[in-house]
User: Fold these one by one.
Assistant:
Number 1:
Amino acid sequence: MDSTQILHTREIKKRLGSLPTWEKNSKAIKRSVLFESFHECVDFVCILAELSDSMEHHPDIEIRENTVTLYCSSHSANGITGVDFDLAHRIEGLITETVVDRGDEDMDEIDEAEQLFGDADALLND
């Protein structure tokens, strides 16, 4: 399958099996990472920018306080493609190498932040 073709729901679910911290979010796959500080978030995003440039594929990035939320979507295809999963796997490697992810224990903080600031997902779907 061409890595730039939109993937069907069944294929997306199958591929998400190898990325348990990611989820389907409309026309993107999404993952949030918690950091100790805003400064750590920005440092991570700067490293991610280098990785994304090398792939010529960039995630949508949202920073809220100590949380970075990443959305991988192929805007030119108007959906999720194999390239998005390639990027997500590379991001996971970057997270493993560079950060101590605070994981599910602090997911309540993300929920609270989304309630305070609104959910950015709606913006991505426009």
Number 2:
Amino acid sequence: MEDFRFTDNPKVPQVAALAEGSWITDRESVILIGDSGTGKTHLATALAVCACHQGRRVRFTTLGALANELQEAQSRKELARVVARYARTELVVFDELGCAPRGAMCLGGQRGPPPAAATAG
């Protein structure tokens, strides 16, 4: 995250507080919205790396790749196993939310979905 050029992106608030990860512990979500090229994926990746350094289980995927993964798992009758794997993840980063395919499935469960850092725009 130290490589991000905050001066080039004055509308991006300081995210140092997010890097410490209490929002993950509190099961809150972060959504990064902005124009193309403003650093949303860079920041989401940095938050994911920070979470990894804290020993958290993290997954990074695009929404389209997730939809494909779930559809393929459903056709192989392995959907419950794939959903359970995501439920054990402490942070899921969904990139390219604005590019989600039609008919995308949603994750859920008794515990609710894991916190997410998402990028859109």
Number 3:
Amino acid sequence: MTMRKIFILSSLAIAFNLSANVMPVDTEKSFQKLNRYTNINTGYSAQRTNPLNTVVSIKYPPSIKTVGQAIFYSLEDSGYSLSKEDHLTEEAKTLLSLPLPRSHRQFKYLSVEAILKTLSGEAYSLLVDPVTRRINFYANISY
């Protein structure tokens, strides 16, 4: 083999090796190579930017008797809280005082937001204030 062929073949091998290691950049998710087999996500996720999207499983203790208590319990570690009592409508106060249905005593693999909407039912709309991280409920006009 001539020196020229060896040079061309080695150049191609180096170029191919370099191009094989280049990974496309994903603008939505950033991954950092931790080792040969493990990549970690260093970007943001929906749960990190909006804690109400966090998927949880909740089983309410027997001491939880009302929908309001269940809502407070559901919001405990989310960073959100229920609006102050003077900002709640009469309909929302009625919702909070209702007894917790047996079918709502346990939720598996639902987002916190989905749990809140399930607890309130179709008659209410969930209002989220992302600035103060407070939630409120308003009765739908159709009911």
